[in-house]
Amino acid sequence: MDQSKFSNTNQSTQLAVPKRTFSLELIVGIFAAAGVGAAAYLAVGLAGLELGTSNTYTVYAEFDNISGLKYGASVEIAGVPIGAVSDITLKDPVARITLKLNKDVKIKDDDIASIRTKGIIGDRYVKISRGGSDTYIAPEGTIIETESVVDLEDVIGKLIHNFTGEKDEEKGSSTEKSKDDKKS
Predict the structure, then answer these.
(1) Given the DSSP bridges, would you call strands 142-143 and 56-63 parallel, antiparallel or unpaired?
(2) Residue 155's closest CA among 145, 147, 163?
(3) Can you say whether the dihedral through the CA atoms of 63, 68, 74, 79 is positive or negative?
């Protein structure tokens, strides 16, 4: 068969292109952009970065012992959170912690920063007890009055050592008495 009879070479074959409308492609593009934006927002939040102006200021405190205190621990006055621990460094022989506090809360120069535990075995946090001074610590200043953490393990160890030490002394004195009795 002659194929030239079936093909129409004189007419150009053009495919009809459908008219573009705002439809499925636009909706998919909007959702994709929103997804990328949400992922970027979460990444910045998880990294702890602050974009734009900050509503916080930095104050430092130095402690002899901060056992169990972690980054992000709460800073509280009268049980109300006013900030967080943003950095912990060793400034030999003390530990220096960086506190990010809300700008609307001012720390006085005689306020006392202490490390406490929420509950019996809860997380550690920084408690600030108010003083009576009218002078405030400037941003990037240092809280001078601090109370280190009371380590329960140390207290129990001292109690056990004291109890066993007293028993050893009693045994020693009783054996000396029995030796003296045998000599007589």
Answers:
(1) parallel
(2) 163
(3) negative
